[in-house]
Amino acid sequence: MSAGSDDDRPRRKRGTATAAPAAGKRRGGKQKGGTDTSGTAATPRTASNEQQARPDRTGSSDEVVQANVEQQERGKVMTETVGAGGTTAASGGKGGGLRVQRVYTTEGVHPYDSVTWERRDVVMTNWRDGTVNFEQRGVEFPESWSVNAVNIVTSKYFRGAVGSDKREHSLRQLIDRVVLTYVKAGVDHGYFASAADAEIFEHELTWMLLHQVFSFNSPVWFNVGTPSPQQVSACFILAVDDTMESILNWYKEEGLIFKGGSGAGVNLSRIRSSHELLSSGGNASGPVSFMRGADASAGTIKSGGATRRAAKMVILDVDHPDVEEFIETKAREEEKIRILRDAGFDMDLGGKDITSVQYQNANNSIRVSDEFMRAVEDGNSFGLRSRTDGEVVATTDAKALFRKLAKAAWECADPGIQYDDTINAWHTCPESGRITASNPCSEYMHLDNSSCNLASLNLMKFLRSDGTFDAETFAKAVELVITAMDISICFADFPTEPIADTTRKFRQLGIGYANLGALLMATGHAYDSDGGRSLAAAITSLMTGTAYKRSAELAGVVGPYEGYARNAEPHRRVMRQHAAANDLVRTLHKNDSAVHKLATIAWQDCLEVGARNGWRNAQASVLAPTGTIGLMMDCDTTGIEPDLALVKFKKLVGGGSMQIVNQTVPRALESLGYQAEQVEAIVEYIAEHGHVVDAPSLKQEHYEVFDCAMGDRSIAPIGHVRMMAAVQPFISGAISKTVNMPESATVEEVERIYFEGWKLGLKALAIYRDNCKVGQPLSAGKTARAAGETQPETVVEYRPVRKRLPKKRPSQTVSFTVGGAEGYLTAGSFPDDGLGEIFVKLGKQGSTLAGVMDAFSMSISVGLQYGIPLEFYVSKFMNQRFEPAGMTDDPDLRIATSVLDYLFRRLALDHLPLEKRAELGIFTAEERAAQVEQGYGSDVDLTSLQTTVDATPQPAPQVEKAKSDSESAGKVGSSMEMLELRQGKAADAPLCFTCGTKMRPAGSCYVCEGCGSTSGCS
């Protein structure tokens, strides 16, 4: 069977009596309620309407596959190298093709038939003011997918204009759009031995995506299979030389990458320092000066309509003469923020005055050498070198400079640190250039002007019911995923030609994983323990060893990467380093021993096959933040991170929310040998208290298993560093992770963490000390209690003054009907047009309803006259849900969830300016039509966009062992906000630009649980 679309597959046509689908080949599946929708128009076997318009992307591939088969049948003799996974690579030179074995799927049964499908309505609101910021009804997803995952995929990854019939509405369409493009490219470029192998590969990828076993990074879902450029990479590294032309080109390239929603990193160390002379005789500006322009550009692009700030990394070598100025750059700006805040300026995150502060759009890092770190260790001086001739132009005290680095990080979390010699000791391509920079999240490190596309596996999908890790299936999954990732480079587009050239020559990949923290807890391992680190190291070693083994097999099929011949010896050396590190892993239990045994075999095969074929990829693995895609896979933890807290915030199907104890907790208790009654009692205790201290029946030696990133028992900073050190030898790139430190941490402790990172062989490290940023203050009450203060606080009392309406004032009356109930709204205004009073007539004179509405109108009117803004009332009363509700006779507001919802949205339309209504999401019919026409063209069905709120009655939340929505979760909008409520202090995380929800850490970035937006580049 070919890998083309329906038009090329007559055997899969359906809907006619003469072309019924063969058994197991349909793209239908079980529909919730017992209805089989295979053969319906709602779920066709298509890649999407956009894809059908591009036959060059998804056309028939039978001819290509047949040519490969005929080539083999003409006498090409091949020997087979059988790997640990579900594919067989035919060796013997380029052109053999892969033979793919089934891992998850069954012959004759399509993956879409393995799940029960259901229709859902996605209505996403801004948590702060209740406005609807996204709505799409009737989307189709598997029943097992959570509300969060459905919301994020629908709002972020479905392509096509919202409200048009061209927009994707089913997960099948999304997966088909991506997978069919990959399979066709694989066929076109000779990856598969036969059409049957291509079809099995398609089915396996489809099954794993459908069941949330892995996910590609976001750019794949955004772009692949659409008319847009086929950009598949989220991570970019740029290059800047010491010329004005190169510096201006840096601004341009960075802007283009930001515009596409990705991030970039750059090392500015080639730019001469401000202490050096220009050819004209004057002093150079220095790299810090040029950083101002780049920072302003990033801020402008952010404010030009993006839903997140631009993600960027700026790096400077420790021997640059301007290194001290670079180190103190952001710390000085943080001091400026404090001074301006105390002077009364709005310096909160997102405040109107914060834009005057510089250097806030980038992460800064210092690239240190072993020479410098040894000078710090020995207390020696260190030379700073000229950029033009490399000569030492000044010396500095290494310890004093290291203290300045640590102090700046203590004050404002920047700069981070990157260990240059360690990075380049693991560099597979040193003959083509040094590694000088990283992407913004610090996990991708390779040549300048290059990119990396990422994919991450969900580790919890490989945990068996008996608590053992399914290493065999994990290795097979890695082979399939890394093969797909390499295929993507064959058709991918890139933002600049130098990046395209480097990526195609070196084919850097970044396979990784998510849910490590959940896996360790579920198996009864503390995150900061030898057993936890041993299992993490074994899994990571197996992943990278298998990925490189598959890369070597691919090199035998379609050839090694172009830059391999020049770098063959160093690439082999790095492979031996990985294998040697694997031999040093100390296993402590049956689980990690079984995984490590398979990893050892993978590395042996990798070295053997690589010696014969070379490798297809210069790089194979990284550990990324996995923010949005982690939510897409319903992961409890992101990347390498531990669990955030034991209790989390959960949205419910049909609306509403509640807090629940993490599902990994009862599984961990079972792994530790607790009985069902004990598990139930411990879970109930955690639900009430948020921690395990003094939980009934729980042994104290098991407390550490439930330690989290935040909360009453948080993991020590050095515990995070040790976990990074355990897995770093088995990662091609690096690890995206920020080590959180308590507010009480000292500068000396920051120094110790940065120094230990070097000693333990990390490639990069960043810290964040709680509340070191002005925009994230600790709550006043908590601060006073923590410090033991007894002084009374100064209380400033403000008395509002009532502004009465004149005897004669303008007013207007509007008649309305809501759900069949008729009424009248009269609004009186001040002479300067500010709303000052309302009167609502609803119900018969003398009735209870009429009396309540009179009293309500009086209270609102008095509040308006005392200066309460109308927009405050609108934000509180819109979307209130009770009867009467439903259709109205107002052409601007066709549906209302209640009379109050209608009244205050009508008042907003009549009395608030457009800019304030836009913040609330309230527009007239003409304004909505103009927006849609401007954004999508005039052919969009505007009728479907009339409804801006969800008026569907909501079912009662399901009963779970957790606190009810009204008790706690109703007060918060995310797990971070719930944690704030428990701890009594504000968490160090920004609010989401899209939906207003407090974001949570994901690696060195942040991710929004509400809508999936991230502050990083993935």
TrEMBL record:
InterPro entries attached to this UniProt entry: RdRp_reductase_class-2, RNR_2_N, RNR_lg_C, RNR_NrdJ/NrdZ, TSCPD_dom
Compositionally biased intervals (Basic and acidic residues): 1-10
Catalytic activity, as annotated: a 2'-deoxyribonucleoside 5'-diphosphate + [thioredoxin]-disulfide + H2O = a ribonucleoside 5'-diphosphate + [thioredoxin]-dithiol
Region (Disordered): 1-77, 949-971
Protein EC: 1.17.4.1
Domain TSCPD positions: 806-909
Keywords annotated in UniProt: Cobalamin, Cobalt, Disulfide bond, DNA synthesis, Nucleotide-binding, Oxidoreductase
Cofactor requirements of the protein: adenosylcob(III)alamin
Name used for this protein in its record: Vitamin B12-dependent ribonucleotide reductase
Species for this entry: Allokutzneria albata (Kibdelosporangium albatum)
Upper lineage: Bacteria, Bacillati, Actinomycetota, Actinomycetes, Pseudonocardiales
